[in-house]
Amino acid sequence: MGNVNLPTPVAVAGAAICLLAGYLIGMVTGSDAPTRSTGEVVSYDGATSELCLGGEGVQEQEGAIVDGVLCGTWRRPAGSSRLPEKGESFRFVSLSAGDAEGPQGQRAATVIYGEVVG
Q: Where are the transmembrane segments (predicted)?
C-alpha cells in the first residue's frame, strides 16, 4: 500500500470537525455548571473572609443554608477591590464540599465566588 497525502485544507477541515465534535459531546454529556444568583449581604468579616448572604437567590445555590442565610468563605474575582457591606446586592456562585450535618454542629465547607453589584 502506498503513502497517502492529504491536501492541507482537507487536513485542517478534518481537525476542525474533530474539535467541534469534541466540544459538542462535552457540552451534552458534561456536568452542569453552577448558575449565578444575586443575594443580599447579611454580614462580612474581613478578618476571616466569612460572608453571609440572604434573599431568594441563596435558595438556588449549594451550601448549608440556615434560616435562609448562606455563609461561606468569600473568594473575590481578580481586580475586585470593593468589600461587601450589609444590605448591598451581591452576585455570586457557591460551591460546597462535605455534608450539611457535620460532627458537633460543624457545617459543610462552602466557598462563595462573587462581587458586589451596583
A: 6-26
